[in-house]
């Protein structure tokens, strides 16, 4: 009687090569999303030759404590009103030199948008979500005022122009046309948003 042949063996010699090729394929084709982060200009390495003196009324101080409460110019405010408070400060025109401002011209508030500085200070225990939300509201105040002026000057929102200018798919000719417009609006309301040293609650 003939011996029954066993089941044929599977040649697994090339399995490691196949797995390696699949690994390379997925590494090459997979895209990993990254957060854009916060757009901030770092100070120059070299200190300026002269000390810059900023009047206290030209500084809008925003403090966040560890509980997420906001203090704007020593006044306890709600997060919903922060953007309006910041816009009121930036657009104040205290010295009357701003021809495009529509503020109250309060002598106790900022003189001019080019002199106005927003200073943000947070506690070490401040929640990251609160910190980002406050940052967004302050940047939003600048963008709202810039949008207003861009609509007046060019009939278009500043944020749309800036997004198109920064888009890598925008043609060089279109970028060149937008560059001067974007800069002009930015110069009307320069974003002077500084962060003070983080404090620790007792």
From TrEMBL:
Compartment(s): Cell membrane
Task: Give the highest taxon in the source lineage.
Answer: Bacteria
Q: Which GO terms describe its biological process?
A: protein transport
Annotated keywords: Cell membrane, Membrane, Protein transport, Transmembrane, Transmembrane helix, Transport
Of which family is this protein a member? Belongs to the ExbD/TolR family.
Q: Which InterPro entries match?
A: ExbD (IPR003400)
* Main subcellular location: membrane
- Segments traversing the membrane: none
The name this protein goes by in its record: Biopolymer transport protein ExbD
Q: How does it sit in the membrane?
A: Single-pass membrane protein; Single-pass type II membrane protein
Q: Output a single Gene Ontology CC term carried by this record.
A: plasma membrane
For molecular function, the Gene Ontology terms on record are: transmembrane transporter activity
Provenance organism: Kriegella aquimaris
